[in-house]
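URGENT: need a sanity check before tomorrow's submission.

F., can you look over the T9SS C-terminal target domain-containing protein record below? I want to be sure the sequence and structure line up before it goes out.
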Amino acid sequence: MKKIYLLALALFAFTFVNAQIIDDNMEFYTLGEMGTQNAGTWTSWTNDGGASNDGFVVVDTQSNSGDQSILAEGGQGRDPLLLLGNQTSGDYTFRWEFYIPSGKEGYFNIQGEIPAQGTPLSGVWNSGDIYFNEGGSNPGVVSDTNGDLSMLSFPHDQWFTCILYVDVDNLTYQLTIGANSSAAIPFSGTGDTTLGGINFYPGSAVSEMYVDDAYYVQGPLLSTGDLEETAVTVYPNPVKDILNISTTTVVDSVVVYDVLGKVVLQAQPDTVSPSIDMSALSSGAYMVQVNIGNATKTVKVIK
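Structure tokens as predicted:
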């Protein structure tokens, strides 16, 4: 069921060291075929940025937050791929909200190095085939052709949280659902040592999965550099002049970047819930980075 949407936290697909890399709540897409609306973060199996029909669709029939999510459905030629930056070292956490109706199944796998856009994927798998209820049977079980996920289960007909931790240095991955976590599972042995992307493949007629609130960070999810669990919201969005930042703790600094990564505005409010004057900025999209201690939260703001 949809949750009431209070304040729009925007999609973020911009890289900062020791901060979040992707924060995408699907709210800023046009409904229907995804196409190339966010080609730098999402692509499809043809690796054309989502331009062909094996991309995916944005829907408002299910959502974990806000009004929208993305849908990959069997028989529809939808094969979305989330780009994780071709990481060759370090550890990373990808968290997303998943919804799978009764009698349906979900699926994902971890891809190795993703070639430059325009080169179709041939498939380099660093994980096994990870199924959520293969064949659409009940109850909700999770399986992995490369390792043991028998300790994991999931609910049908409601949103649930998946947390995937990938240690590129040690070539392992670990999946957590609810209070249960798998052991660290070795990469599948294809020889690839790169974390390239996550493929949500609707490979059968009973595949139907909704994805919302995709969140990807370097390091463990609940590290000190992660503000995702802290209440930080911005409004109004779009903004005309004054951007209000709602927080529960003192904000040390705010940095505003344009889409090219150039700093266009900086402030050190040293107060709870500051306001930032953006009246001098031209119309367009901006990344607003809020810094509290060692933690960072970044949102996309439209002016």
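My own read: Residues 93 and 221 are 6 Å apart (CA to CA). Residues 233-302 form a domain with the Immunoglobulin-like fold (CATH 2.60.40). If you see anything odd, call me.
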